[in-house]
Amino acid sequence: MNNIGIELGITPYGKAKGISYDLVVLPWGATEPHNLHLPYLTDCILSEAIALDAARKVRQREGIRVMVLPPVAMGAQNPGQRDLAFCIHYRYETQKAILSDIVASLYKQGQRKLVIINGHGGNVFKSMIRDLAVDYPDFLIASSEWFTVESPAGYFEEKDDHAGEMETSVMMYYHPELVKLEDAGEGRGKPFQCKSLNEKVAWVPRHWTKVTKDTGIGNPRKASAEKGERFANAVVERYIELFTELVRQPLYPD
After folding, report:
1. HEC secondary structure over 64-95
2. Are strands 66-68 and 140-145 parallel, antiparallel or unpaired?
3. What is the spatial distance between Cα 224 and Cα 24, in angstroms, rounded to a whole number?
């Protein structure tokens, strides 16, 4: 599949210079285990795959030019996750510095619209974006999580919290060669002992090694490429609509 001119990582300068892009997309993930059967960079791989799919289709349908930046693998982790081999925790300050440098560079080059497609539940960008809006009041930054823009109900049989049926299915659709389903653990997760925390009266980070044995929370065994395709296509349609609205419409009514 030819993504030159859409995927920055494989696009030469000779193809990108002189082109006026309407929108820039930044996939953002993490570096962490995903049960025993998915790659460490699953959150990066899937957010980039969704971004590229949407960028191709919105150009074909609407003539809107989108450039997808290389995914950022610097994700925030829960307590206990750093105990797992090669799971890397990046602090809020580190993530903010990365985003700030990306925005500063894009701004100087004349870009004014950026969409973050986040693939990792531990990443939260709202405060960063508010601060950047002070420094760059005419630069629009929109943040989203690809796995929440469409309800998984009706697509999957099992609830997916981490590396379960949904993530596994979408990976099987985009990159089946990276899925080793025969190695997957059961993905059983333990709730808090405290009822109020389970009912989300308050929030505390889960200690990962206390709530799961295989790093997954959600059973991946019923995953399939067909389920992943249906869900991914629905998510991509939501992004096509978002990109089109951000490029063609004002944010607020007159």
Report:
1. CCEEECCCECCCCCCCCHHHCCCCECCCHHHH
2. unpaired
3. 31
Task: Please report the sign of the dihedral spanned by the C-alpha atoms of residue 113, residue 117, residue 121, residue 123.
Answer: negative
Query: Is the separation of the CB atoms in 45 and 175 below 8 Å?
Result: yes
Q: Residue 83: name the closest of 194, 212, 192, 180 by CA.
A: 212
Nearest to 243 by CA among 144, 100, 131, 152: 144
Which residues of 96-165 form beta strands (DSSP E)? 113-118, 140-145
- Strand order in 140-145's β-sheet? 66-68, 23-28, 113-118, 140-145
Spatial CB neighbours of 174, under 8 Å, sequence gap ≥ 6: 45, 46, 49, 228, 232
**Pairwise CA distance, residues 150 & 237, whole Å:** 10
What token pair was written down for 23?
Answer: 């929108």
Please state, rounded to an integer, the average pLDDT across all residues of the chain. 97
d(CA 191, CA 193): 6
Q: What is the pLDDT of residues 196-242, one digit of tens each?
A: 999 999 999 999 999 999 999 999 999 999 999 999 999 999 999 99
Segment 157-181, tens digit of pLDDT: 999 999 999 999 999 999 999 999 9
Tell me how far apart the alpha carbons of residues 182 and 36 are, in angstroms, rounded to a whole number: 9
Across the chain, where does the E strand assignment appear?
Answer: 23-28, 66-68, 113-118, 140-145
| Spatial distance between the Cα atoms of 173 and 100, rounded to a whole number of angstroms | 33
130-143: average pLDDT: 98
Of the candidates 73, 43, 59, the one whose C-alpha atom is nearest the C-alpha of residue 7 is 59
Q: Taking residues 115-133, what's their average pLDDT?
A: 98
- The pTM for the full model equals 0.96
